[in-house]
From TrEMBL, chains A, B:
Pfam families on file: ROK
Protein name: fructokinase
Catalysed reaction, written as an equation: D-fructose + ATP = D-fructose 6-phosphate + ADP + H(+)
UniProt xrefs under InterPro entries: ATPase_NBD (IPR043129), Carb_Metab_Reg_Kinase/Isom (IPR051804), ROK (IPR000600)
Cofactors, names only: Mg(2+)
CDD domains: ASKHA_NBD_ROK_BsFRK-like (cd24067)
Species, as recorded: Lapidilactobacillus gannanensis
Catalytic activity, EC: 2.7.1.4
Coiled-coil ranges per UniProt: none
Family that this chain belongs to: Belongs to the ROK (NagC/XylR) family.
Presence of the UniProt keyword ATP-binding in the record: no
UniProt keyword annotations, A-Z: Magnesium, Metal-binding, Zinc
Amino acid sequence: MAHLLGGIEAGGTKFVCAVGDEDGNVQARIKFPTTTPEETIAQVFAFFDQYQIEALGIGSFGPIDINPDSATYGYITDTPKLAWKNYNFLGALRDHYQIPFVWTTDVNVAAYGEYKKGAGIGKKNILYVTVGTGVGVGYISHGELYSGRSHPEGGHILMHRVEGDDFAGVCPYHGDCLEGIAAGPAVEKRTGKKGYELTPTDDCWQKEAYYLAQACMTYTLTFSPDIIIFGGGVMKQSQLFPMIRTEFLKLMNDYVRVPDLDQYIVHVALGDDAGITGSLLAAATVLA
Amino acid sequence: MAHLLGGIEAGGTKFVCAVGDEDGNVQARIKFPTTTPEETIAQVFAFFDQYQIEALGIGSFGPIDINPDSATYGYITDTPKLAWKNYNFLGALRDHYQIPFVWTTDVNVAAYGEYKKGAGIGKKNILYVTVGTGVGVGYISHGELYSGRSHPEGGHILMHRVEGDDFAGVCPYHGDCLEGIAAGPAVEKRTGKKGYELTPTDDCWQKEAYYLAQACMTYTLTFSPDIIIFGGGVMKQSQLFPMIRTEFLKLMNDYVRVPDLDQYIVHVALGDDAGITGSLLAAATVLA
């Protein structure tokens, strides 16, 4: 018997809301830009009010508070999107719908979608990295949404700089962290062009591949996932994948054993639907 | 009713074997240098053969194979200590003793000891970092020994180099990874002296604090632990702790919320006994 579930992929630039079933099949969806919390949440309500959903999975941009014991559980915390800073996102939804919720990050639901229906099928430890307007990291550990004290923010790790690259980086918090030198805005600042306007052989991609390979090294040496799945706008540059694998092999220098790299560093299988699919699948985990 | 348990802290330079109870209390112990596998394992047997132990917890140097489905489960894999490379450590013990085993890394048992009886009491997610002849990282996630596909090897992450520091690093695999620029041999190579021969105000410690703070940043943004506990010979330089906290604060730049730093970045409470205590406590988890 199919259940009706809701999913929200709340990104910093756009929201996707969907209703669907516990297998992650979308039955209806809507997409709109992320504006102010009040305006945006009104659109969320207008959509879901049309349906009788039984549970709602929310993958939000962040950082967010995911500690149920915290006074600010369910809040967006220190985002550079100032209108959303300290916004009680989950609280607003809970006041409106008396159903169970799953509250996690946008990248965690994408990781969950890939785990259940995408490139991570059959694996237990799935690292998902989106490289777009920012760099975000979601993780599924032994089949569950990972959290420690809080959720990973692995896009903001500092990087060993490649020789001769003195680009200062664009992260407002950390300058030349991974996001600051490798996300879409960094590509644009380096080259004066959007990523999709560059040729696949532009010099910029070699640096990009080096930094993403180094990130894969760091994630391998910390989380030790079964697979690293890349999504996001920048990763539509498919020439990056073989370059990242080559750089990763050089950097690791055979120190720890990893799977065949064609199976280890891969493109998101569900494409832009990973997040919304995962948010429905996450909602299914709290059905009574 | 007290059980008699065994614990092994198998380090690259020395082995500690102990018998004790399920509260981690050591009743007898022996320590000897790590030589060849044959010689060393004979000493392990000679010690434990005197007792009727019911379970054995092993924390080994590595990298090691901790995947029960792997053909080389229980092996030490790619260590630079060539005599131990591809040695079936757990297999040798299993052939000799027909009891349950816990097989993990030396740093994971130290993390477990600190979780149960040390600085991590009352917390769930404990990151343990040893800085000695190498840099090793153990992790307790939600009260359990963490593993992904394999165990963390977080001492070998690459680092953003501090301005003006062009020290090449001494890691045979990665040159200037964290271990290559911050472990004991790196301190000695930089200064021509052992760490304990330097004054607490030597310039070297400022760089050391910066790299360890950056490592804390990376672990915070990946694992997101409740606490980061430092042990190992280099961390006996207690002047490092306030310096690491100051650098960490600057690097993080308020991006994610962390606990009070005096409670977050701390010294190992069990001192040199963290590993052997943790190996006994780990053994207790597999008692029938």
